[in-house]
């Protein structure tokens, strides 16, 4: 709570003190009385607004809703805030309140929020839009409320509600999944084998011959018998999207948007999709998404901050490559969004294409290191295009897939 005189109240205090001082110096009782009156008015105003301080007690309840939540970067969301009286609270606690909402600069653009206000006898509602400019988790609230006394000489300011967080997903493009990926692997379909998949929607009893890697241990422990995850996407080629994170900045945001767009396209086409974000396994921000839905794929990208050094990026990428066999069983498609790679990275990626198809977008069209990376991957059997961060996502994907849809 912040209780203080307004500018008018401060002026009256100064004027009253000056008149009272003059009356004391001249020995004039009338001047002394006249100077005391504005001071008393301000004190009474402070006492009055203090008694109905909106931040004191449990008289007011605040509720904030955001739609949509989460929201994609570059899009807007509507925020609704309701301040209502609790049961038994006097309407005086709600009268003459001025409300001001707070939001992170990534949502407000650094400008004051302009809200539409509607008042009812026992509630005040605000509605305003926010523009999500950057991927991340950004603060909304708490609500700042101000009440001024009827004479305008004193005011109290307090906060209501809690600070909440709006999740902003990366900007994504609607990409088509090439038809050639939608068919089952012929040699596996003939024998009735199932393609490895981690997108498992059901559990079934364990049968002799089932892969032990598919045992769902938490459920097995609860039931007292082995159960395995059943593959509801049999015959669909697994797809792993591999993201090599550059340092924080526009390059990172573009790379994340492209990787997320590809993952969503593959998932939407029915493929078991994995997203490996190139975050070191021992990093507390580590994100390895397996068997996700659309929301899990996008959530995995929200907290990525990029790698500070080339060595950290290299180590994280090599760690993800070493775990590919466990992720897709050695037979899935790998779609990589990469920066220029050194000798170790190029060698590891070349090994990937020996057992599975690989597609790659290499950042940089005028960088000799990017050219060398693209050349090495093509020689190893990868399908490769080079693109500059900021290039159109759909156009980059079209060039990589050869326009297939």
TrEMBL record:
Keywords: Membrane, Transmembrane, Transmembrane helix. The lineage of its organism: Bacteria, Bacillati, Actinomycetota, Actinomycetes, Micrococcales. This is DUF58 domain-containing protein. It comes from Cellulomonas triticagri. InterPro entries: DUF58 (IPR002881). Pfam families: DUF58 (PF01882). Residues 203-305 form the DUF58 domain. It comes from the Bacteria. The chain crosses the membrane at residues 37-54.
């Amino acid at each position: 709570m912040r209780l203080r005189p307004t500018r008018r109240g401060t002026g009256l205090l100064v004027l009253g003190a000056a008149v009272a001082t003059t009356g004391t110096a001249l020995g004039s009782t009338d001047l002394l009385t006249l100077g005391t009156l504005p001071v008393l008015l301000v004190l009474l105003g402070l006492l009055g607004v203090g008694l109905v301080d909106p931040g004191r007690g449990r008289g007011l309840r605040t509720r904030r809703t955001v739609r949509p939540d989460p929201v994609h970067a570059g899009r807007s969301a509507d925020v609704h805030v309701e301040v209502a009286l609790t049961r038994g609270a006097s309407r005086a606690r709600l009268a003459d309140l001025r409300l001001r909402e707070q939001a992170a600069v990534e949502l407000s653009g650094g400008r004051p929020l302009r809200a539409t206000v509607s008042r009812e006898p026992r509630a005040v509602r605000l509605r305003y839009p926010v523009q999500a400019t950057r991927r991340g988790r950004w603060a909304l609230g708490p609500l700042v409320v101000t009440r001024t006394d009827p004479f305008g000489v004193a005011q109290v300011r307090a906060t209501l509600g809690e600070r909440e967080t709006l999740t902003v997903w990366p900007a994504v493009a609607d990409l088509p999944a090439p038809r050639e990926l939608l068919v089952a692997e012929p040699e596996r379909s003939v024998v009735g084998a199932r393609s490895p998949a981690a997108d498992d929607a059901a559990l079934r009893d364990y049968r002799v011959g089932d892969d032990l890697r598919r045992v769902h241990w938490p459920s097995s422990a609860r039931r007292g018998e082995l159960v395995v995850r059943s593959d509801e996407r049999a015959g669909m080629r697994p797809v792993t999207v591999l993201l090599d994170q550059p340092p924080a900045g526009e390059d990172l945001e573009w790379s994340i948007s492209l990787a997320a767009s590809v993952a969503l396209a593959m998932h939407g086409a029915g493929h078991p999709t994995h997203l490996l974000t190139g975050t070191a396994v021992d990093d507390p921000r580590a994100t390895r998404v397996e068997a996700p839905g659309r929301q899990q794929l996008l959530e995995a990208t929200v907290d990525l901050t990029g790698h500070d050094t080339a060595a950290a990026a290299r180590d994280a990428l090599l760690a993800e490559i070493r775990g590919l066999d466990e992720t897709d069983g050695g037979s899935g498609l790998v779609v990589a969004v990469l920066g220029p790679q050194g000798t170790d990275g190029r060698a590891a990626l070349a090994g990937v294409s020996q057992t599975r198809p690989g597609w790659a977008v290499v950042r940089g069209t005028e960088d000799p290191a990017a050219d060398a990376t693209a050349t090495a991957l093509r020689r190893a059997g990868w399908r490769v295009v080079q693109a500059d961060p900021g290039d159109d996502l759909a156009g980059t994907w079209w060039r990589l897939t050869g326009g297939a849809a």
